[in-house]
Amino acid sequence: MASVDMDVERYLLRIGSAGSTAEPCLELLRSVHTRHLLAVPFENLTQHSGGRAKIDLPILYDKIVNQRRGGFCFENNSLFSWLLTKLGFQVTVLSGQVKNSITGRYGPPFDHLIVMVNLDGQRWLCDTGFGVSGFSAPLSLDTSGLQEQGHRVYRIRKDMGMHFLEWQKEENRGEDGDWTEIYKFTLEPRCLGDFAEMCQYHQSSPSSIFFCKSLCTVLKPDGRLTYMGRRLTTTTFPSEATGGLLEITIKDLTDEEIPAVLAEKFGIVLSSPLVPKDDTITPPPVLY
Description:
Blueprint: H1 8-14, H2 26-39, E1 42-43, H3 57-66, H4 73-86, E2 90-98, E3 112-119, E4 122-126, E5 139-140, E6 147-149, E7 152-159, E8 162-168, E9 180-185, H5 196-201, H6 209-212, E10 215-220, E11 223-228, E12 231-236, E13 247-252, H7 258-266
Antiparallel strand pairs: 1-10, 2-3, 2-9, 3-4, 4-5, 6-7, 7-8, 8-9, 10-11, 11-12, 12-13
C-alpha cells in the first residue's frame, strides 16, 4: 500500500495502544479503533494554514504519527487502513456518500472513505474519520439490528445492495424511533487513488464544510471537544454526573487565542499561521 514501511510500534504509541504482536482479533480491532479516535483529531487545519491534504501514505504517516496531527476522512481512514493491514487484518477500502444536511440528498461516490474488515467470517465497518456524528467502535455489517454505543444507537440498513448508516438520538431509541441517515455505501472494493478527486473537491468547493470552516474535533472518554471557526465547544455525554443530560458549553475565541487552544486542547502546533474561517456553506447542486 506504500513505497515505505510503517513503524507500527510508533503508530501504536501515538494512539496509546500496544499489542502489535497480538493475533488479529475483535478485541484488538475495537481497541485500536477507539484509541485512534481518542488520540487523533478529525481536522482540516492544513488547508486553512497554507497547505493541501493529499492521500499519500508516507506523508500521512509523518503528519499524523510524527507531527501528532490529525486529518479528515481521506487522511485518517487511509492511514488507519494501512495500520490494520500491518496488524494482519483483512482490509477493504469502501466508498461512502454522505447525506447533505442542507439538500437532504446524498453526495457523489467517493465523497467519504471508509474501511471494512473481514475477521473470522464476520464483516466490520470501521471509520476513524467522520467527526461529531461518528461511531467509536467498529459496527457489524452482518446485522440490521440496533448497535448501542454510549448514548447513541446505530444501525446499518440494507436496501437493494446499498448499505445505509443511521443513528438515533437518546429520546428516540427503539426500532420504531426516528432515524437520522448519515451516509450510504456499497461493499465494492476501492483503492485510495479513487478518492483523489473528491479529496481535492472538499478543499476547494464552497459547498464543502471543509473549505468553508476551519475545524478540529476529538473524542474524549466522557464527551467531545470541538473547535470551529472562532468557537470552542465542549460536549459532555449523558451520565449520572450530568443527570442523564447532554451538556454543551460554547466559548468564543479571538484569533490570538486559537493557536494556544489548539496546542493545549488538541496537541496541535501548526507550522504555518492558521486563518480561522467560518463561512456559510453554499448548497451543492442536486445531482444524486
